[in-house]
Amino acid sequence: MTNSKKKQLFEVSWEVCNQVGGIHTVIRSKIPSMIDKWGEGYFLMGPFLNKKTAIEFEPIYHLDDSPIGKTVKKLQEMGLTVHFGYWLLVTGKPQVLLFDISSIWNRLDSIKAEFQREYKIKHLGSENLTNQVLAFGEMVRIFLTEYVSEIDKAGEVVAHFHEWMASSGLPKLFTSRVNIATVFTTHATLLGRYIAQNDADFRSKLEIIDWRQEAQRYGIETEAVIERMAAQSAGTFTTISEIIAKECIYFLGRVPDLVTPNGIKLERFALHKLENLHLEYRKHIHKFVMGHFFPSYSFDLNKTIYFFTSGRFEYKNKGFDMTLDALSLLNKKMKKARIDTTIVMFVISNRNIRSVNATAMNSHVVLNEIESVCKNIQKEVGSQLFKSIVSSQSVQLPDLNDFVSEYLQHKRVRTMLSWKTEQLPSLLTHDLVEEDEIVAQCRKHNLSNSKQDRVKVVYHPEFISVSNPFFGLDYGQFVCGCHLGIFPSFYEPWGYTPQECVVRGVPTVTSNLSGFGNFVTQTMSDHDERGIFVVNRESQTYQESVEQLTDIMYRFIKMKRRTKEIERNRMESALDKFSWYQMRNHYDTAHEIALKRKKSMPRPPTTHIGPGEVY
After folding, report:
1. What is the enclosing helix (H) or strand (E) of 580?
2. How many separate domains does the chain show?
3. Which one of 88, 94, 271, 452 has the fewest beta carbons within 10 angstroms of its own beta carbon?
4. DSSP per residue over 114-136, as a string?
């Protein structure tokens, strides 16, 4: 006999209508496949924080008598503000519930006191984010509790919590025995992310690390406890890669039930169209390069290759250190071999900046003026050239300079003189509030953008968007216009940046210490031939990995254009492997396990589970 109960899925994330990091991409990109599976039974839950949230949200003003409508009304009667409506996305309009945490702020002290008492935290702290997380978690808990009582036995409900910021209410859902199936996914352990930046050998010490002691040392005890309790309270516990699974055992006290790798939304283009897009977007990058470098000196853009790396600023975790060390070796190697190709390396992150660099901005403004002058000259010459040719008895081409007015000739000279400079092209496109490791490392390696350097570096300390004053491209278009993405991460739970390259037909470098790189090495024996290069950071020394990355970049530079086209073709044939319509199966399994375990969790969660007692 089949189960006739209607199933509903609530996905809870801090990054619903609120972009903070990679989880926002995870949630957004899989929405179409989740709606295909759950239909009208699919809901997203997130915090209502500010006007930025409201931009992506379309509210439903008149609530009906559905269980959702009734539950929203119940919370409103309690004095809690819940917004129900749609998340406005290119991929569709999924149903979304946004919780205004300011409406529960008057209860924050009691929420914090109960949490501190329950989990024996010495110093709960007063960080705004932690307070917001605790308030949000309590509102989600109240809503799910009321919703389940509203539907009674008419349906089966799964609540899927992503990361600690969405999950502070999950342990209480378990201890209250609310009739709901729960899943918790950690996309990275908090302790792993913190420790990795300070101890390159931490993975070999996992068994002896005292999680609470380390959490207190880094000032994240409350956050670490939320994460640990969520992992132990959920019906199904998952993580996104086998690399992170090892950390979960020792930091969170539970062996993950399964690994749920991240997929991506595929945008399929015919290969010729993808190549055309690459050429179109590359024109924008060419223009930036002319504006940035050509006031000082010029080089052949037809022999220029664009590399890039991007991600939030975790200098060692994201492999920025290794990338710059390898670029220094590459620069020397290219000079020695007298290779006349130029590499322009874009480093993109998000830092505290004062403003756009005035010199860099002025150069681009003047470049636009030069372009305007050239178009006027072209128009002036074209008109007079036609008249001259048809009226002349000679077949000789006339001197085109004769057709340029004195005004435009003077304007061209004045503009060019104001544009040219003897200064070297700037490393930075923006002025940093404080100099960081990227700037220091470039200085150390003398990556100074001199004319003799075969490798040039442009550090853009702000994420690229279509409103960007330099490129006029969104991030995806910028990626498509480049030739190679480089992401040799030391700590990367998954790694969307290399995956986004693959989707856009751009070859990429990842590492086997990233979830994506680890997944590729296990499932794709010919990944190099498909344009996905994996640096071995697991069983080599740091220097050996630097040399391997240098060799990958050097071989890429020497690769013939035809070979690159074949590589792009092979990359296209591998795309289905990364699609959410393939990867969603792992989530489907997690939800089914949670439904089966709904009333039979092994034991109550505890902060005191040791490595020998994990379940």
Report:
1. helix 580-596
2. 2
3. 452
4. HHHHHHT-S-----HHHHHHHHH
